[in-house]
Amino acid sequence: MVLFLEELNTVEFSDLVKKGALTILPIGAVEGHGPHLPLGTDMIQPMALAVRLSERFDAIIAPPIHYGECSSTKNLPGTISLSFDTLRAVVREVLEELYRQGVRRILVLSGHAARAHLMAQREAGKEVMKRFPDLRLMILSDYEIAYELLGKDFEADDGHAGDIETSRILQHREDLVKERPPKADIKKNNYMIKSDMGEFFPAGYWGDPTKATKEKGKQVDDFVFKELERLVDQLEKLAG
Ligand SMILES: [Zn+2]
Description:
Strands 1-3-2-4-5 form a five-stranded parallel β-sheet, sandwiched between helices. The protein has about 240 residues and is α/β, with parallel strands linked by helices. The chain contains seven helices and five strands. Strand 4 (about 105-110), helix 4 (about 115-130) and strand 5 form a beta-alpha-beta unit. Zinc ion binds near residues 42, 112, 160 and 165.
């Protein structure tokens, strides 16, 4: 059974919290993903994993935070970004509220893996842990796990809206995947600062979306899910 927090009543919520249920907080982004994937791509992926985790662990899925911090794609049509400080504050307050309600194990699962976006969440997490040291908290992006497949099952230079991401969206929302453009490269320079960091990937994506298949999407999701299962088990042991 999938347990969405907003569908539970007060009695059901209290019972689950008393049993020590894990709570998953999915975080997305509203961000341009090339001409072929929807703006909500980074919300679709962690929600699909959260549903599987909820079924597996009787975990509560908290209502997701749909907006994220997207500095490098800000100039793409449709990107709607929060600032670093706003995201940090929102994540901190939601975590504090979950704690106040008795939740003691939380997995924050972000579909967007940009460095600053994850840093804002980890800063929030550290602040919360200073106040509530008995909380067990993990914060990660499914892409931090999925990128382990780069250079193995996927090309090493795959990235934003490329083969992996297009495959995963094909698996979950094929209806939202439009005509796929050819491979695009990123002109990456880790040290150069521009007012529009999007200049490094003018196509708005990089990697090869034409190689994507539903089957590969399932393979990536299964790989990520297996690792998440291991991490949640760890969280259980830490809590014990
Ligand atoms: Zn994405």
